[in-house]
Amino acid sequence: MQSTRIYLSPPHMSGDERALLLDAFDSNWIAPLGPHVDALEREFAELVGAKEAVALSCGTAALHLALLLLGVGRGDEVLTSTMTFAATANAITYLGAEPVFIDSDEATWNMDPQLLVDELRTRAHHNKLPKAVVVVDLYGQCADYGLIRQACQWYNVPIIEDAAEALGATYDGQPAGTFGELGIYSFNGNKIITASGGGILVTNQKELADRARFLATQARDPAPHYQHSQIGYNYRMSNLLAAVGRGQLRLLEDRVERRRANFEFYRDALADVPGIGFMPEPAACRSTRWLSCITVAPSQFGATREDVRLALGADNIESRPTWKPMHLQPVFSHCRLRGGAVAERIFEQGLCLPSGSNMAEEDLLRVVDIVRTVGHCSPLSRDIYRLAPQRKAA
Ligand SMILES: Cc1ncc(COP(=O)(O)O)c(C=O)c1O
Description:
Layout: H1 16-26, H2 35-48, E1 52-56, H3 59-69, E2 77-81, H4 86-94, E3 98-102, H5 113-125, E4 132-136, H6 145-155, E5 159-162, E6 170-171, E7 174-175, E8 182-186, E9 199-203, H7 206-216, H8 239-249, H9 252-269, E10 276-278, E11 285-286, E12 292-296, H10 298-301, H11 305-314, E13 320-321, E14 337-338, H12 341-349, E15 350-353, H13 361-374, H14 382-386, H15 389-393
Parallel strand pairs: 2-3, 2-4, 3-14, 4-5, 5-8
Antiparallel strand pairs: 1-9, 6-7, 6-11, 8-9, 10-12, 12-15, 13-15
Helix pairs in contact: 1-8, 2-8, 3-4, 5-6, 11-13
Pyridoxal-5'-phosphate (PLP) is lined by residues 58-60, 84-85, 87-88, 136, 162, 164-165, 186, 188, 199.
């Protein structure tokens, strides 16, 4: 008999979401506007400590608008992380601009601050500063904003923070998504909290938020009839989804704790397996561990990342290779690149293990036993493992 499927990062509803969704439904605000959209914007802004939050149809739309708000256009260059999901780079191309990719650093797996500094310095020298830098917070962890922010301020280049994967994370105690002129988040189905789809744009500048709302509702001029002086978009969040998002937002800290506990479980249970590494977490960062990422060094482990992924798949367990860097994607192969070797290594060896906040201990043990078996290590003794103090504390 096939074992029950373990998904990579499934939705985790608590119950409140259903009541809120029904409230939205019964109120007949079944539109990309309504009281739940307004309330979500208020609650979200308060949670992350931003002055303004704009609820949108998805994170990609939020990125597109953020770039547009900063005046990015045809022929401009925008620096961004090569290690990311395609949406980051795609949004840059929607405006006719070109992404320029920067490698990861080993400490965070996010944009290497030193390479960014080098790139900005060289560009300043040639009078070719980029229009913006889109910094990605990967797998629930902030980039190293100390140096990144200093450099961007020095050269007067605005930052857009792509925190689609990092809602709930902090850097030096400050929430992810609030380190740039604009920050974006995703409520996609696989994220730490979800509304099935949706995105949020945050900023401390009211004019930018007002303009985002204007552009996201087809850029309609104030007139009794439909009048348009600019190109607009249909990018607002549905009131129904905003209701679900509000229910989820209340659970964020619990979800962060649970995902962090998954990661700790994997780290303890695989500590003695040669060749297994873990995504690092520098002291300034508090990662949400949205996805628990390991690396598999074949020379020590005795098998590859793909061997592990296939063995998990054969037991009906979903796992996923870490993002394939953008500079290796055929569609972006013509784009400029700084470095690249770190992201390539993370891609070759990296695997995202099942990370849902609703995973049972038995599910975690099933994953761990398969990884251990592929690496020629004996499965864990259930009884001994249950006494582990870390697990008790979680
Ligand atoms: C880094 C990153 N940026 C942007 C997005 C796009 O968000 P959405 O799917 O809500 O459009 C995602 C994921 O979905 C992502 O992982």
